[in-house]
Amino acid sequence: MRNQILKSGGEVHFETRMEELIIRNGVVIGIETQQGKTFEGPVILATGHSARDVYRWLDAHNIRLEAKGIAVGVRLEHPSELIDQIQYHTKEGRRKYLPAAEYSFVTQVAGRGVYSFCMCPGGFVVPAASGPEQVVVNGMSSSNRGSQWSNSGMVVKIRPEDLPDYHSYGNLTLLHFQEEFEKQSWLQGGMKQTAPAQRMEDFTRKRLGNSLPVSSYQPGLLSSPLHFWMPDFITGRLSEGFQKFGKMSRGFLTNEAVLIGVETRTSAPVRIVRDPEIL
Predict the structure, then answer these.
(1) Dihedral angle sign, alpha carbons of residues 120, 125, 126, 131
(2) Which H helix or E strand runs over 28?
(3) Dist. CA 8–CA 262, nearest whole Å
(4) Nearest Cα residue to 76 out of 42, 40, 116, 107
(5) Neighbours of 243 (CB within 10 A)
(6) Side-chain half-sphere of 210: how many Cα atoms within 13 Å?
(7) Beta bridge partners of residue 258, listed in sequence order
């Protein structure tokens, strides 16, 4: 990507952060960096889903934003051998020549989507926080899909109207919810990158449990009653979704699997409203 930019006549500036947009007569004409250097011209914001400093700057300077729905939940990790057995419908699993099995689930619970996201066969659960006092998890697979675990995000769609206590934040309603959810995960994980976790069947049955299976998550897991401290509108839908998925794939709903908190970065919590005249 960098080579293509350079080939096309562009420049790449490392260790350089956009400090603010330069706006004149309601038009963005450039940016200013933290070193005080100015770049003028058209601006494309390619911020991804976690540029919270940019979102806050835009909101504070009356750039048209709107809160948008996101999906949040947990990382669900199974032994990859078990997923192979379920998906290939044989006790032998993938055997010698088949790849690590994948799955995809989606359902509706109480008017909201519950679904698997970014499934990682033969993969790892990894830390993905972008700031202090956060525990956020994600998943990845190496090219050989060779680990003894398989994981996916298991998430529930939420909308601004699901969060009446956060409406005072206006356009940043979902952003503030994300931050508080991630901080609660950090607190439940022991105020470090240890992640709060609970066996899948224990979670579904609202049952306390102290033991956890061996996990790919390198910072470690801490047993935690996710069903108790996570919001009911998330846990209730996840629980019902898991029960439906367990009926679709026998053996999927099991205490051999573990829920690892929390998965919150599926998409950006705000949308920059485009000018309809130029669409």
Answers:
(1) positive
(2) strand 27-33
(3) 40
(4) 116
(5) 14
(6) 0
(7) 77, 199
Q: How far apart are CA 26 and CA 231, in angstroms?
A: 41
Tens-digit pLDDT profile for residues 13-59: 999 999 999 999 989 999 999 999 999 999 999 888 889 999 999 99
- What six digits make up the tokens of 160? 């601004």
Handedness of CA 15, 19, 22, 26 (dihedral sign): positive
Give the CA count within 13 Å in the CB-facing half-sphere of 177: 32
Q: Which distant-in-sequence residues (6+ apart) come within 8 Å of 12 by Cβ?
A: 2, 5, 6
Whether residue 245 contacts residue 208, with contact meaning beta carbons closer than 8 Å, is answered with no
Whether 141 contacts 65, CB under 8 Å: no
Q: pTM for the complete prediction? A: 0.91
pLDDT at 211: 92
Distance (Å) of CA 84 to CA 122, 127, 251: 10, 25, 11
Q: Which pair of tokens denotes residue 222?
A: 């801490």
DSSP helix, strand, coil percent of the chain (3-state; round to 5)? 30, 30, 40
Place of tokens 């960096």: 33
- Per cent of the chain over pLDDT 90 is 90
Non-local (6+) Cβ contacts of 163 within 8 A are: 173, 174, 177
